[in-house]
Structures are given as structure tokens and as C-alpha cells.
TrEMBL record:
SUPFAM superfamilies per UniProt: Clavaminate synthase-like (SSF51197)
Keyword terms of this UniProt record: Dioxygenase, Oxidoreductase
Keyword match Oxidoreductase: yes
Domain of life from the UniProt record: Bacteria
InterPro entries from the UniProt entry: Phytyl_CoA_dOase-like
Protein's UniProt name: Ectoine hydroxylase-related dioxygenase, phytanoyl-CoA dioxygenase (PhyH) family
Any one Pfam family match given in the protein's UniProt record, by short name: PhyH
Gene Ontology MF terms: 2-oxoglutarate-dependent dioxygenase activity; iron ion binding
Length: 255
């Protein structure tokens, strides 16, 4: 454990293999397809956190003990969800995510948070896997600037030059998890291949980190483990087969 945390402190990321079992990953892939049918007005890269508060499967997935155990390694035993997004890049037309640092965007005080990136599909350089610059989290938070010269997920990029030769590709299989620091410089290229590239970002905070956004409770703020801490949280939705994605463990909300 100490070696893992030391490497994370130095490099800003870690990779965990075969975290989530194939059956649950198949359900997750089906959930992405269900969301796209349900929200045809949204690009598949933009299946974001406001959809989560009334989605029992999404909450079942992000509250899986295997994921929470990884999060606990980095943020401690009292855990809440801050946000979660599917970024699903369709074949041939999936948009890039330009270089950025997550901490430049988030209303959190202090900025104690960790991202788990769960691979739904095989993620490779050919279909636009995550790329990150090891050690870049040890610098400050740079400004962002608008970039609409190419269609991209954020519409912005970091306002400093990035040494792309130092970047490493996060090559993942379904069920693998990549974990990264909020300050690390990262992004991903467009998907110009014939294979979709989908991943689920999950942003876990210790319950001592305050969500400072005006909207309270925050749309995707859910208490997941340990003491509730300083935030208010969304109520856990009850599964309704008439309007929710059906999944194998659908049932009552947790106590």
C-alpha cells in the first residue's frame, strides 16, 4: 500500500487490472446504449452527471465495493460521489478531449478528490485512449483557454504548452480502472478507428471536501461510505422498471 501511494504521489496515476467482472461490464455497456437511445439529443461523449441522480444502475455501479475500496486507498474511509460521466467516443467520429487539468473546473474545497476511469470498452491509442503526463500534477493549476478550432469534448484546453512526448497511453481492457490526481495534465485523441471507446469517469471525494457549487444538493452528490461529513446529498432513487434501465441486482435502495 505504501509503495502504491508513493508511486501515485510521484507519478499522479495508477492502474488496476480486472477490477469489475465481465457480467457487470456487459450490463454497463448495455446501460450506455440505453442512455444514448434515451437521450438522442446528447452526443455520446456528453452523458454527464445530471443524468445520474435518477438512475439506479449508475448508482449501483459507482457504489460497487470494488471501486470504493480503490477510492478509499486515496481519499480515506468516508466517501461521497462528486460527479460521474460516460465519455463514449463513437467509431470514426469520437471527439478528442484536449489537454487539461480536472482541478481547473471543479467547485471543491479543498481540492481533495480522485478520479477512477473505468474502461467499458478496450481503450487503445487507435480509438482515443486517455493520455497523461506523469508527474505533471506536482506543478500548479494552469489557466484554461477556449479552443473551438476543432470539435472537442470540453471546448477548452490548457493554456500552456504540453510536452506530448512525455505522455503515456492508458491502454485498458473492460473492467480495468485507471486512477488519477485532479492536477495531472491529461487528454485523449479523437477516435478515428472502427471501434467505440467508452469509459466511465467517477469522481470520489472524502466527505470532508465541500462541494461549493450554487446548486445544493449538487446533482450527483451521493453519500457512499462512512460518515456523511459536510455536504448535503441527493436521495437514492427507487428502481422503477417502467422508466429505469433493468439490471440484475435491481431492488430496494440501500439503508
Amino acid at each position: 500500500m505504501t509503495d502504491l501511494l508513493d508511486r501515485f504521489e510521484h507519478e499522479g496515476y495508477a492502474v488496476f487490472r480486472e477490477v469489475v467482472d465481465p457480467d457487470l461490464m456487459r450490463e454497463t455497456a448495455g446501460h450506455v446504449e440505453w442512455l444514448q437511445r434515451r437521450h438522442p439529443d446528447l452526443r455520446p461523449e456528453q452523458l454527464g452527471h445530471t443524468l445520474l441522480r435518477d438512475d439506479p444502475f449508475w448508482l449501483r455501479l459507482i457504489s460497487d465495493d470494488r471501486l470504493l475500496d480503490i477510492a478509499e486507498t486515496f481519499v480515506g474511509p468516508d466517501i461521497a460521489l462528486f460527479a460521474s460521466h460516460y465519455i463514449s467516443k463513437p467509431p470514426y467520429s469520437g471527439q478528442p478531449v484536449l489537454w487539461h487539468q480536472d482541478a481547473a473546473f471543479w467547485p471543491l474545497e479543498p481540492m481533495r478528490v480522485v478520479t477512477l476511469w473505468l474502461a467499458v470498452d478496450h481503450s487503445t491509442p487507435e480509438n482515443g485512449c486517455v493520455r497523461l503526463v506523469p508527474g505533471s500534477h506536482r506543478g500548479g493549476i494552469a489557466a484554461m483557454r477556449e479552443n473551438t478550432a476543432v470539435d472537442n469534448v470540453l471546448g477548452e484546453e490548457i493554456a500552456v504548452d504540453v510536452d506530448e512526448s512525455a505522455a503515456v497511453d492508458m491502454v485498458l481492457a473492460p473492467g480495468d480502472v485507471e486512477v488519477h490526481h485532479p492536477n495531472i495534465v491529461h487528454g485523449s485523441n479523437a477516435n478515428t478507428s472502427a471501434r467505440r471507446r467508452c469509459g466511465l469517469t467517477i469522481r470520489y471525494i472524502p466527505t470532508s471536501t465541500r462541494i461549493t457549487a450554487d446548486e445544493q444538493p449538487y446533482p450527483s452528490a451521493f453519500h457512499l461510505r462512512g460518515e456523511p461529513g459536510v455536504n448535503t446529498y441527493q436521495p437514492w432513487p427507487e428502481f422503477d422498471p417502467a422508466r429505469h434501465y433493468a439490471f440484475s441486482s435491481a431492488g430496494p435502495s440501500p439503508a
